[in-house]
Design brief:
There is one protein chain. A hairpin with a 5-residue loop joins strand 3 and strand 4. The strands form two sheets. A two-stranded antiparallel ribbon has the order 1-2. Strands 3-4 form a two-stranded antiparallel ribbon. It folds into two domains: 140 residues, no CATH class; 117 residues, no CATH class. By secondary structure, the protein is mainly α. The protein is built from twelve helices and four strands, in the order αααααββαββαααααα. Bound molecules: zinc ion.
Length: 286
């Protein structure tokens, strides 16, 4: 997805401008250039999948983790700028715009409704990035919760960044293995191709594991397979024709939802499953 065009300085001005205490307001506004510079460094690193190199921004400006920051410290105030003046308050318009930027969907799982914003680099570790638009990603509460406050230690050690890692989807890496024995099951897994850059491959794996996408996708397949099965019960197809039919659906899901969406992976998996083509579709898939 496209990165937001909101200007960091403008968002920061609006979100800090209504801090109740004039001394806090002054202190926050005195940091504007530091925040704008931090955002530029972040953008430079993110475009190169190198957010792990931003250690010089960690716990800045006062050197304390904002998770442990004492009340009234500047790091705590930066965090509050997001919580009190962006989630609600003067900056709410920016929050809503960012949250709705992925057609209302979570940009991390592509499935849940975006009911929150996720800090790609967590605000406890990177308070300077608390209200920096390119660090704020529309997300569902589930993904936001799974991701926790993780700060990356190497290039592969973080979830995919929807604004900067779009090229990862030039490669096909999500698959679903469909088997009938010992019992009908579908296992989603990441299998990066050999020509995929190692940082992307590691990130795709990290993303899938951290967000527990296997569980999420498996919780969704029942309805999809039941409706497919009901359609086939009405108009049964011999295996070769069913294969063609499923192949067509896989292509449509790829075009609409992306080649690494769970639906595209599911239909590719069905195409490759002799067991499914030869009658597995009759399973009730409870
Ligand atoms: Zn999600």
């Amino acid at each position: 997805m496209d990165k937001p065009t909101l200007d960091t300085g403008t968002v920061y001005d609006v979100c800090t401008g209504t801090a109740r205490s004039s001394s806090v307001r002054k202190a926050l506004q005195g940091l504007k250039e530091t925040v704008v510079r931090a955002a530029a460094a972040y953008e430079f690193a993110a475009a190169r999948q190198a957010q792990h190199t931003l250690n010089h921004l960690k716990h800045q400006p006062d050197g304390e983790s904002a998770a442990k920051a004492t009340n009234g410290s500047i790091n705590e105030e930066l965090k509050k700028t997001y919580v009190n003046r962006m989630v609600s308050g003067a900056g709410r318009g920016f929050y809503n715009k960012l949250r709705g930027s992925c057609r209302g969907l979570c940009a991390l799982c592509g499935h849940g409704a975006a009911d929150t914003l996720d800090h790609q680099l967590p605000k406890d570790s990177f308070p300077l990035l608390s209200v920096v638009p390119i660090n704020l990603v529309p997300a569902c509460s589930r993904c936001n919760h799974q991701k926790k406050e993780h700060a990356p230690t190497h290039a592969g050690d973080q979830t995919l960044h929807p604004y900067f890692d779009g090229d990862v989807h030039d490669h096909l890496w999500l698959f679903a293995q469909v088997t009938g024995s010992p019992k009908p099951s579908i296992i989603f897994h990441v299998d990066p191709p050999a020509d995929m850059p190692p940082a992307f491959a590691a990130r795709a794996r990290h993303h899938f594991a951290t967000l527990q996408l296997s569980e999420l996708y498996n919780s969704q397949i029942g309805n999809e397979l039941r409706s497919l099965g009901m359609g086939l019960a009405r108009h049964p197809l011999p295996p070769a024709e069913l294969r063609e039919h499923l192949q067509e659906i896989a292509e449509i899901k790829t075009a609409v939802e992306g080649r690494n969406s769970w639906k595209a992976a599911l239909y590719r998996g069905l195409v490759d499953s002799i067991w499914y083509l030869e009658g597995g579709w009759e399973e009730p898939w409870r």
